[in-house]
Amino acid sequence: MAEVKSNLSKQAESQLQSLFEPVKLSLLYKASIHGYNNAAFHNKCDRQGPTLTVGYNNYGFIFGGYTSKSFTQTGQYLADEKAFLFSWKSNDPEKQPLRIPVVNAQYAILDNNLGPNFGAALIFLNGNVAAVITNPGQYYTFNAAELHGGDLNLTECEVYRVEPLGYALEKPWRTVQWKAEKRKELIDTIRSYKPPVLLVPQVRVLLVGPVGAGKSSFFNSINSVFRGHVTNQAPAGSSATSLTTKFRSYFTKAGRDGKPLPVVLCDSMGLEEVTGAGLDVDDVVSIIKGHVPDRYQFNPSMAIQEDTPGFIKSAEMKDRIHCVAFVMDACKVKIMSAKLEEKLSAIRKKVNFIGVPQLVLLTKVDEACELVASDVSSVYKSRFIEGKMQEVGARLGIPVSCIVPVRNYSTELELDCNTDILLLSAIVQMLRFADNYFDDISYDEKCD
Asked: pTM value?
């Protein structure tokens, strides 16, 4: 049988690949060859993993949808927060593809025995005809004319398997010793650390990031390393809104009955792009200046005020934040909304003005890259993770040297040496950055 060739030009394929991290598109189904019918589609595309459905029309539009889930004809909706619709005009090749993320991920895909169905908003092969049905609504919000130009008839329909390219570099771009001795060295470094300011017994690090990025999970993971087993002290999990509603200062001990470690991880409410929801920018400033008490209940509609019960008016150096860590999900950097990016930028400007050093914790690197999922010690050999760190650095305006990848414990019952090394390395960086803060404070006092 002759090879089935893709309708995508090299330029079109490159544009569609830009919607993802490095991927390969492998053609599974071509309607003009295999038939415009549901049975042929399912025969070629069921249980193939992530797929990209692509439609073509006479107006030059190349449009469709992506799902990270396999088609299996369950007859139910599939939750998929990574799903999206897209559109690109072949007669306007320099313009970037339009990307339309799913609004309600619980209804991203209707996995029935018919054609590809993206939450009833975009349906292919309905009635076994060369046409689509569009219904913008609560699951995907878009302008139909921007998606397909008003031409619902298809000249071709194809489905591609999306294969991540998490390939390894020959040499790591950061050098790390992945040995038990290194883990012990990092633990000893953290245990023996003492802030250079006498009146500050512990470094206070504020964790800031979008909902679900892994702030609370990071504390739980650090706590697990020093407890010697996986723990879950801070509320953590998957939710559309922040599970953290109070400001918490989490203290970690060197073992169950050991001494407190010289670092306190301060957890805050998750950031949300909607005004009046999630952590307020002004609350971040108050936290950094030491005015917010532990267990303060955040009010998304109003930042803490001086007359708010519990407000610490005369905050001392030990109450302040000495380092800010932005926690970012490696899986969601590319789809971060402009509003969320603006909120992060506003916080960065406030923190810069106060003079507190900042770094980024890039979480879920194992979920974002198959290479890292199979071997955490490959994180600095992953071209994908390297690119992801460069991307988050560019979007937040933070040098790559201030970005550290981590893998939090989420499903494991036992600790892993390499995962611990990443986590502990992040804490060591926080202590180093805090030292910079104390050095600046000492210099300013000498100048005064």
From this structure: 0.67
pLDDT in tens, 169-203: 888 999 999 999 999 999 999 999 999 988 899 99
End-to-end CA distance of the chain: give it in Å, rounded.
Answer: 83
Total number of residues shown for the chain: 448
Residue bearing tokens 């990209």: 52
DSSP string for 321-385: -SEEEEEEETTTSTT--HHHHHHHHHHHHHHHHHT--EEEEEE-HHHH-HHHHH-GGGGGGBHHH
d(CA 297, CA 246) in angstroms, rounded, equals 4
Token duo for residue 350: 């406030």
At residue 119, the pLDDT reads: 94
The strand pairing partners of 71, in sequence order, are 46
pLDDT in tens, 25-78: 889 999 999 999 999 999 999 998 899 999 999 999 999 999 999 999 999 999
Angstrom CA distances, 230 to 159, 187, 372, stand at 42, 16, 20
State whether residue 162 is helix, strand or coil.
strand
CA–CA separation, 38 vs 372, rounded Å?
37
- Residue 328: count other Cβ atoms within 10 Å of its Cβ: 28
Q: Report the candidate in 237, 249, 234, 245 with the shortest Cα–Cα distance to residue 212.
A: 237
Q: Which of 171, 176, 172 is nearest to 428 (CA)?
A: 176
